[in-house]
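It is worth pausing here to work through a concrete case rather than discussing structure prediction in the abstract. The textbook approach is simple: state the sequence, then state the predicted structure, then interpret. We follow exactly that order.
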Amino acid sequence: MWEFWRRHKRKVYVSLGLCGSGYLLYKFYDAYTKRISELERQLADEQENDELLKAQMQVHFENIQRIANTMTLPNAMLYLSSRVAEELDLLHLTERLIKGKGQPNSLTPSEKLELWDRLKILSFTRMVLSIWAMTAISLYIRIQVNILGRHLYIDTARDLGGFQPEDADLIERTDEQQFLASADFLSSHRIPALISNMQAAATEVLRGKQLRDIFNSTVLHETIMQILNMFMSTGRPHHWVDYLMPEDVRFYKSVESSGSDSPNVSDVTKLDLLMVETRTVLSSSEFGNILDMSVRQVVDGLTEDINLQFGDGNLSGGIPLAKLLPRVAQISPQLLEEPSRNKFTHIIQNIPEVEVFFTLLYTNMS
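Step two, the predicted structure:
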Protein backbone atom coordinates (compact mmCIF):
# COMPACT_ATOMS: atom_id res chain seq x y z
CA MET A 1 0.00 0.00 0.00
CA TRP A 2 2.82 2.37 0.87
CA GLU A 3 4.51 1.60 -2.39
CA PHE A 4 1.19 2.12 -4.25
CA TRP A 5 0.58 5.42 -2.50
CA ARG A 6 4.13 6.59 -3.20
CA ARG A 7 3.74 5.81 -6.89
CA HIS A 8 0.19 7.17 -7.39
CA LYS A 9 -0.28 9.94 -4.81
CA ARG A 10 0.22 12.64 -7.41
CA LYS A 11 -2.55 11.15 -9.52
CA VAL A 12 -4.79 10.88 -6.47
CA TYR A 13 -4.20 14.54 -5.60
CA VAL A 14 -4.93 15.60 -9.15
CA SER A 15 -8.10 13.50 -9.23
CA LEU A 16 -9.29 14.88 -5.91
CA GLY A 17 -8.52 18.41 -7.09
CA LEU A 18 -10.45 17.88 -10.27
CA CYS A 19 -13.40 16.44 -8.36
CA GLY A 20 -13.36 19.33 -5.89
CA SER A 21 -13.10 21.89 -8.67
CA GLY A 22 -15.93 20.20 -10.52
CA TYR A 23 -18.08 20.26 -7.43
CA LEU A 24 -17.34 23.94 -6.82
CA LEU A 25 -18.08 24.75 -10.46
CA TYR A 26 -21.36 22.88 -10.18
CA LYS A 27 -22.30 24.81 -7.04
CA PHE A 28 -21.38 28.09 -8.70
CA TYR A 29 -23.38 27.18 -11.80
CA ASP A 30 -26.37 26.11 -9.74
CA ALA A 31 -26.28 29.35 -7.75
CA TYR A 32 -25.87 31.32 -10.96
CA THR A 33 -28.87 29.66 -12.66
CA LYS A 34 -31.00 30.22 -9.56
CA ARG A 35 -29.96 33.87 -9.47
CA ILE A 36 -30.77 34.27 -13.17
CA SER A 37 -34.17 32.68 -12.63
CA GLU A 38 -34.82 34.98 -9.68
CA LEU A 39 -33.82 38.05 -11.72
CA GLU A 40 -36.04 36.93 -14.58
CA ARG A 41 -38.97 36.56 -12.19
CA GLN A 42 -38.28 40.00 -10.72
CA LEU A 43 -38.06 41.47 -14.20
CA ALA A 44 -41.34 39.83 -15.18
CA ASP A 45 -42.97 41.15 -11.99
CA GLU A 46 -41.61 44.65 -12.64
CA GLN A 47 -42.86 44.57 -16.22
CA GLU A 48 -46.26 43.42 -15.02
CA ASN A 49 -46.31 46.19 -12.41
CA ASP A 50 -45.23 48.73 -15.04
CA GLU A 51 -48.04 47.65 -17.33
CA LEU A 52 -50.50 47.83 -14.45
CA LEU A 53 -49.19 51.28 -13.49
CA LYS A 54 -49.51 52.51 -17.08
CA ALA A 55 -53.07 51.18 -17.29
CA GLN A 56 -53.98 52.81 -13.97
CA MET A 57 -52.41 56.11 -15.06
CA GLN A 58 -54.31 56.03 -18.35
CA VAL A 59 -57.63 55.49 -16.55
CA HIS A 60 -56.79 58.23 -14.06
CA PHE A 61 -55.70 60.58 -16.86
CA GLU A 62 -58.99 60.06 -18.71
CA ASN A 63 -60.92 60.70 -15.49
CA ILE A 64 -58.97 63.91 -14.95
CA GLN A 65 -59.87 65.18 -18.44
CA ARG A 66 -63.53 64.29 -17.82
CA ILE A 67 -63.55 66.21 -14.53
CA ALA A 68 -62.07 69.25 -16.28
CA ASN A 69 -64.64 69.16 -19.07
CA THR A 70 -67.75 68.41 -17.00
CA MET A 71 -67.14 70.19 -13.69
CA THR A 72 -64.29 72.66 -13.45
CA LEU A 73 -64.54 74.26 -16.89
CA PRO A 74 -68.36 74.77 -16.92
CA ASN A 75 -68.26 76.69 -13.63
CA ALA A 76 -65.37 78.87 -14.75
CA MET A 77 -66.96 79.53 -18.15
CA LEU A 78 -70.28 80.54 -16.60
CA TYR A 79 -68.57 83.06 -14.34
CA LEU A 80 -66.42 84.37 -17.19
CA SER A 81 -69.47 84.82 -19.42
CA SER A 82 -71.32 86.82 -16.76
CA ARG A 83 -68.31 89.05 -16.13
CA VAL A 84 -67.77 89.79 -19.83
CA ALA A 85 -71.47 90.58 -20.28
CA GLU A 86 -71.37 92.84 -17.22
CA GLU A 87 -68.19 94.73 -18.12
CA LEU A 88 -68.82 94.97 -21.88
CA ASP A 89 -72.56 95.65 -22.06
CA LEU A 90 -73.36 97.09 -25.49
CA LEU A 91 -77.08 97.49 -24.91
CA HIS A 92 -76.89 101.19 -24.05
CA LEU A 93 -75.12 101.92 -27.35
CA THR A 94 -77.52 99.95 -29.51
CA GLU A 95 -80.55 101.45 -27.73
CA ARG A 96 -79.32 104.99 -28.37
CA LEU A 97 -78.67 104.20 -32.04
CA ILE A 98 -82.12 102.63 -32.42
CA LYS A 99 -83.69 105.63 -30.71
CA GLY A 100 -81.73 107.96 -33.00
CA LYS A 101 -82.99 106.07 -36.04
CA GLY A 102 -86.61 106.39 -34.87
CA GLN A 103 -86.17 109.99 -33.79
CA PRO A 104 -83.78 111.54 -36.33
CA ASN A 105 -83.49 114.83 -34.45
CA SER A 106 -82.41 113.18 -31.17
CA LEU A 107 -78.81 112.68 -32.35
CA THR A 108 -76.55 114.97 -34.30
CA PRO A 109 -74.50 113.43 -37.14
CA SER A 110 -71.32 113.70 -35.09
CA GLU A 111 -72.99 112.01 -32.07
CA LYS A 112 -74.29 109.23 -34.29
CA LEU A 113 -70.84 108.71 -35.84
CA GLU A 114 -69.26 108.63 -32.39
CA LEU A 115 -71.76 106.02 -31.20
CA TRP A 116 -71.11 103.85 -34.25
CA ASP A 117 -67.36 104.15 -33.73
CA ARG A 118 -67.67 103.13 -30.06
CA LEU A 119 -69.92 100.24 -31.05
CA LYS A 120 -67.35 99.12 -33.64
CA ILE A 121 -64.47 99.18 -31.14
CA LEU A 122 -66.39 97.58 -28.25
CA SER A 123 -68.01 94.90 -30.45
CA PHE A 124 -64.64 93.71 -31.71
CA THR A 125 -63.13 94.07 -28.23
CA ARG A 126 -65.85 91.88 -26.75
CA MET A 127 -65.57 89.24 -29.48
CA VAL A 128 -61.76 89.02 -29.52
CA LEU A 129 -61.53 89.13 -25.72
CA SER A 130 -64.02 86.25 -25.55
CA ILE A 131 -61.94 84.25 -28.04
CA TRP A 132 -58.74 84.74 -26.07
CA ALA A 133 -60.22 84.35 -22.59
CA MET A 134 -62.20 81.21 -23.50
CA THR A 135 -59.13 79.61 -25.08
CA ALA A 136 -56.78 80.61 -22.27
CA ILE A 137 -59.16 79.51 -19.49
CA SER A 138 -59.84 76.18 -21.22
CA LEU A 139 -56.12 75.44 -21.45
CA TYR A 140 -55.37 76.81 -17.98
CA ILE A 141 -57.93 74.59 -16.29
CA ARG A 142 -56.60 71.51 -18.06
CA ILE A 143 -53.10 72.44 -16.90
CA GLN A 144 -54.43 72.70 -13.36
CA VAL A 145 -56.27 69.39 -13.26
CA ASN A 146 -53.41 67.51 -14.92
CA ILE A 147 -50.82 68.88 -12.50
CA LEU A 148 -53.09 68.30 -9.51
CA GLY A 149 -54.16 64.86 -10.77
CA ARG A 150 -50.54 63.78 -11.21
CA HIS A 151 -49.60 64.87 -7.68
CA LEU A 152 -52.63 63.19 -6.15
CA TYR A 153 -51.93 59.99 -8.08
CA ILE A 154 -48.31 59.92 -6.90
CA ASP A 155 -49.37 60.57 -3.30
CA THR A 156 -51.92 57.75 -3.48
CA ALA A 157 -49.48 55.33 -5.12
CA ARG A 158 -46.85 56.01 -2.45
CA ASP A 159 -49.37 55.54 0.32
CA LEU A 160 -50.66 52.26 -1.11
CA GLY A 161 -47.09 51.09 -1.67
CA GLY A 162 -46.25 51.65 1.97
CA PHE A 163 -43.21 53.83 1.28
CA GLN A 164 -44.62 57.26 2.06
CA PRO A 165 -41.85 59.33 3.73
CA GLU A 166 -42.76 60.69 7.14
CA ASP A 167 -42.05 64.27 5.99
CA ALA A 168 -43.86 63.89 2.65
CA ASP A 169 -45.67 67.07 1.65
CA LEU A 170 -49.13 65.80 0.79
CA ILE A 171 -51.81 67.96 -0.79
CA GLU A 172 -54.30 69.12 1.81
CA ARG A 173 -57.95 69.63 0.94
CA THR A 174 -57.74 73.39 1.47
CA ASP A 175 -54.72 73.65 -0.85
CA GLU A 176 -56.57 71.65 -3.49
CA GLN A 177 -59.65 73.87 -3.26
CA GLN A 178 -57.64 77.09 -3.41
CA PHE A 179 -55.60 75.81 -6.33
CA LEU A 180 -58.71 74.97 -8.36
CA ALA A 181 -60.33 78.25 -7.33
CA SER A 182 -57.49 80.11 -9.06
CA ALA A 183 -59.26 79.35 -12.36
CA ASP A 184 -61.52 82.31 -11.52
CA PHE A 185 -58.63 84.74 -11.03
CA LEU A 186 -59.14 86.26 -14.48
CA SER A 187 -62.87 86.74 -14.00
CA SER A 188 -62.58 87.95 -10.42
CA HIS A 189 -59.57 90.25 -10.61
CA ARG A 190 -58.18 90.83 -14.09
CA ILE A 191 -61.14 91.36 -16.43
CA PRO A 192 -60.92 95.19 -16.27
CA ALA A 193 -57.22 95.19 -17.15
CA LEU A 194 -57.74 92.61 -19.92
CA ILE A 195 -60.59 94.71 -21.39
CA SER A 196 -58.48 97.85 -21.29
CA ASN A 197 -55.52 96.29 -23.11
CA MET A 198 -57.66 94.36 -25.60
CA GLN A 199 -59.63 97.53 -26.36
CA ALA A 200 -56.39 99.42 -26.95
CA ALA A 201 -55.32 96.76 -29.46
CA ALA A 202 -58.73 96.81 -31.17
CA THR A 203 -58.71 100.61 -31.37
CA GLU A 204 -55.31 100.60 -33.04
CA VAL A 205 -56.22 97.91 -35.60
CA LEU A 206 -59.67 99.35 -36.41
CA ARG A 207 -58.52 102.96 -36.54
CA GLY A 208 -58.53 103.11 -40.34
CA LYS A 209 -61.56 100.89 -40.94
CA GLN A 210 -64.77 102.67 -41.85
CA LEU A 211 -68.34 101.41 -41.50
CA ARG A 212 -68.74 101.38 -45.28
CA ASP A 213 -65.61 99.26 -45.80
CA ILE A 214 -66.30 95.84 -47.30
CA PHE A 215 -65.57 92.89 -45.03
CA ASN A 216 -65.42 89.29 -46.22
CA SER A 217 -64.38 86.22 -44.25
CA THR A 218 -60.72 86.75 -45.09
CA VAL A 219 -60.71 90.40 -43.97
CA LEU A 220 -62.62 89.47 -40.79
CA HIS A 221 -60.14 86.69 -40.01
CA GLU A 222 -57.17 88.99 -40.61
CA THR A 223 -58.67 91.75 -38.46
CA ILE A 224 -59.29 89.39 -35.52
CA MET A 225 -55.77 87.98 -35.72
CA GLN A 226 -54.23 91.45 -35.96
CA ILE A 227 -55.97 92.48 -32.73
CA LEU A 228 -54.90 89.29 -30.99
CA ASN A 229 -51.31 89.53 -32.20
CA MET A 230 -51.07 93.16 -31.11
CA PHE A 231 -52.44 92.28 -27.68
CA MET A 232 -50.07 89.33 -27.26
CA SER A 233 -47.00 91.25 -28.43
CA THR A 234 -47.58 94.33 -26.26
CA GLY A 235 -45.66 94.45 -22.99
CA ARG A 236 -43.03 92.17 -21.54
CA PRO A 237 -42.70 88.53 -22.67
CA HIS A 238 -45.50 86.31 -21.36
CA HIS A 239 -47.24 89.36 -19.86
CA TRP A 240 -50.57 87.66 -20.51
CA VAL A 241 -49.80 85.01 -17.87
CA ASP A 242 -50.57 87.64 -15.24
CA TYR A 243 -54.19 87.72 -16.45
CA LEU A 244 -54.58 84.04 -15.59
CA MET A 245 -52.86 83.83 -12.21
CA PRO A 246 -51.23 86.12 -9.63
CA GLU A 247 -47.52 86.75 -10.02
CA ASP A 248 -47.04 86.36 -6.26
CA VAL A 249 -47.85 82.78 -5.24
CA ARG A 250 -48.75 84.09 -1.76
CA PHE A 251 -51.80 85.89 -3.18
CA TYR A 252 -54.28 83.20 -2.11
CA LYS A 253 -52.73 82.90 1.33
CA SER A 254 -53.17 86.63 1.79
CA VAL A 255 -56.81 86.43 0.71
CA GLU A 256 -57.44 83.40 2.92
CA SER A 257 -55.80 84.96 5.97
CA SER A 258 -57.09 88.52 5.47
CA GLY A 259 -59.38 88.16 8.46
CA SER A 260 -56.62 86.91 10.73
CA ASP A 261 -54.75 89.20 13.15
CA SER A 262 -51.39 87.59 12.48
CA PRO A 263 -51.30 85.88 9.08
CA ASN A 264 -48.18 83.93 8.28
CA VAL A 265 -47.59 83.94 4.54
CA SER A 266 -43.90 83.04 4.54
CA ASP A 267 -44.20 79.26 4.84
CA VAL A 268 -43.93 77.36 1.58
CA THR A 269 -46.87 75.00 1.18
CA LYS A 270 -48.04 72.52 -1.43
CA LEU A 271 -50.27 75.26 -2.83
CA ASP A 272 -47.19 77.40 -3.46
CA LEU A 273 -45.48 74.53 -5.28
CA LEU A 274 -48.56 73.84 -7.40
CA MET A 275 -48.88 77.49 -8.36
CA VAL A 276 -45.17 77.79 -9.19
CA GLU A 277 -45.34 74.69 -11.36
CA THR A 278 -48.43 76.05 -13.13
CA ARG A 279 -46.75 79.40 -13.84
CA THR A 280 -43.68 77.59 -15.14
CA VAL A 281 -45.85 75.65 -17.60
CA LEU A 282 -47.74 78.79 -18.68
CA SER A 283 -44.47 80.65 -19.25
CA SER A 284 -42.93 77.89 -21.36
CA SER A 285 -42.43 78.23 -25.09
CA GLU A 286 -44.29 74.93 -25.55
CA PHE A 287 -47.44 76.34 -23.97
CA GLY A 288 -47.05 79.57 -25.92
CA ASN A 289 -47.14 77.53 -29.11
CA ILE A 290 -50.17 75.57 -27.90
CA LEU A 291 -52.04 78.78 -27.00
CA ASP A 292 -51.25 80.36 -30.37
CA MET A 293 -52.29 77.23 -32.24
CA SER A 294 -55.54 76.93 -30.27
CA VAL A 295 -56.48 80.59 -30.79
CA ARG A 296 -55.91 80.28 -34.54
CA GLN A 297 -58.08 77.17 -34.73
CA VAL A 298 -60.86 78.91 -32.81
CA VAL A 299 -60.67 81.96 -35.08
CA ASP A 300 -60.81 79.67 -38.14
CA GLY A 301 -63.93 77.97 -36.76
CA LEU A 302 -65.55 81.26 -35.77
CA THR A 303 -65.10 82.98 -39.15
CA GLU A 304 -66.41 79.87 -40.87
CA ASP A 305 -69.50 79.94 -38.62
CA ILE A 306 -70.14 83.63 -39.22
CA ASN A 307 -69.73 83.07 -42.95
CA LEU A 308 -72.34 80.31 -42.95
CA GLN A 309 -74.77 82.26 -40.76
CA PHE A 310 -75.20 84.93 -43.42
CA GLY A 311 -76.92 82.36 -45.66
CA ASP A 312 -77.70 83.78 -49.09
CA GLY A 313 -75.83 86.96 -48.22
CA ASN A 314 -72.68 84.90 -47.89
CA LEU A 315 -69.81 86.73 -46.26
CA SER A 316 -67.41 85.42 -48.87
CA GLY A 317 -68.64 88.09 -51.29
CA GLY A 318 -68.18 90.82 -48.71
CA ILE A 319 -70.59 93.15 -46.89
CA PRO A 320 -70.19 96.60 -45.34
CA LEU A 321 -68.72 96.58 -41.86
CA ALA A 322 -71.87 98.28 -40.54
CA LYS A 323 -73.93 95.21 -41.48
CA LEU A 324 -71.37 92.86 -39.95
CA LEU A 325 -71.19 94.63 -36.58
CA PRO A 326 -74.48 93.24 -35.15
CA ARG A 327 -73.19 89.70 -35.61
CA VAL A 328 -69.80 90.61 -34.14
CA ALA A 329 -71.55 92.16 -31.13
CA GLN A 330 -73.66 89.04 -30.53
CA ILE A 331 -71.00 86.33 -30.87
CA SER A 332 -69.57 86.50 -27.32
CA PRO A 333 -72.26 84.35 -25.60
CA GLN A 334 -71.69 81.63 -28.21
CA LEU A 335 -67.95 81.64 -27.54
CA LEU A 336 -68.50 81.46 -23.76
CA GLU A 337 -71.31 78.91 -23.88
CA GLU A 338 -71.45 75.93 -21.52
CA PRO A 339 -68.66 73.52 -22.65
CA SER A 340 -70.90 70.56 -23.48
CA ARG A 341 -72.60 72.71 -26.14
CA ASN A 342 -69.58 74.83 -27.02
CA LYS A 343 -68.08 73.80 -30.35
CA PHE A 344 -65.04 76.02 -29.76
CA THR A 345 -63.90 74.27 -26.58
CA HIS A 346 -64.30 71.01 -28.51
CA ILE A 347 -62.11 72.41 -31.29
CA ILE A 348 -59.37 73.08 -28.72
CA GLN A 349 -59.68 69.65 -27.09
CA ASN A 350 -59.45 67.85 -30.43
CA ILE A 351 -56.22 69.50 -31.61
CA PRO A 352 -53.68 66.61 -31.69
CA GLU A 353 -50.81 68.77 -30.41
CA VAL A 354 -52.95 69.85 -27.45
CA GLU A 355 -53.70 66.24 -26.53
CA VAL A 356 -50.00 65.35 -26.70
CA PHE A 357 -49.06 68.41 -24.62
CA PHE A 358 -51.38 67.46 -21.76
CA THR A 359 -50.43 63.78 -21.91
CA LEU A 360 -46.78 64.73 -21.46
CA LEU A 361 -47.67 67.20 -18.71
CA TYR A 362 -49.59 64.54 -16.77
CA THR A 363 -46.91 61.86 -17.12
CA ASN A 364 -44.06 64.17 -16.09
CA MET A 365 -43.08 62.54 -12.81
CA SER A 366 -40.07 64.74 -12.13
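Step three, interpretation. Strands lie at 214-215, 319-320. The longest helix spans residues 2-87.
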